[in-house]
Each structure stands twice: as structure tokens, then as C-alpha cells.
Design goal:
This protein has 141 residues and is mostly helical. It has a single domain, classed as Rossmann fold. It contains six helices and five strands. The strands form two sheets. It has a three-stranded parallel β-sheet. The chain has a two-stranded parallel ribbon with strand order 2-3. Helix 6 links the parallel strand 4 and strand 5. Helix 1 crosses helix 2 and helix 4 crosses helix 5. The protein is globular and about 40 Å long. The two termini are 15 Å apart. The relative contact order is 0.20. The mean pLDDT is 88.
Length: 141
Amino acid sequence: MSEYLFDASSVVDILIGKNGADVDVSILFDEYMLDLTMYEAANALWKTGLAHDNLTDSALEDAVTILSRLGTEVQLETVINENLSTTMDLAQSNGLTFYDAAYLATTERNDLTLVTEDSALRKAAREQEIPVDSVRTDSSL
């Protein structure tokens, strides 16, 4: 049974081993991601690889290939199905982007643990009493 919702920061850290994340991509299998996570993660990979030149072309291509295949391995939640007013309330009350608030709303609705490397999102989750974890080496995953 699925327990976790992974946000883009965690997915990227898993895909490229960023920030001390030493976790196999299979940890994502059968867990939750938002549909927007695919776009956010691809954008972060693009920034890391092309805009900042911190990934080789081969590493970038491998990460994007794995990301594209994840859609069949994870449970994708569609943001449009979220209660948009609840998401907006969470965004406003926590000073988050609507994207980040969608992670909180989905985690709460599905009784999951949010996995994020984003400190502001982690803080907001704790304030909302939503379980939160990380893929970094100090993680309990």
C-alpha cells in the first residue's frame, strides 16, 4: 500500500543523487506523485543540466528518460481533481506557491506522508500536522 507523496525536489534528488540522496529510484514505485511533479522535476533537471551546466548531457538524458518512465510506475494524482479552494487556502495561510500547497492538499486528502527537500514546504507540512520526510541521508525512508 502506498504511503508517500513525493514532490519534485525529492524526485530530482533521487534521479541525480543530489544533496546526499543515495536512494534507488525504485523507492518511488507504487507511491504517489502529482501530475505537475513531472513538469517541475523536468524543469529542475533542465536548470541543473543546461542552464547551470551541472550535469553531463548523458546524465541529463538518463534522468529525463527515467522520469518519463515513472508515469507507469507511480500513482499519479491529477491536480485538477483537487479541491482548488482548499489548495488556495493552504497556499495563502502558509505563504506557499499554489504548486506546493497542492502537495499539502493531496497528502492530507490521501492520508500520506509528504516527501520533500523543500524546507518551506516541510515547515508548512509540520504546521499543518502533515507527516513529512526526506530522501537525504538522515531520512527514515
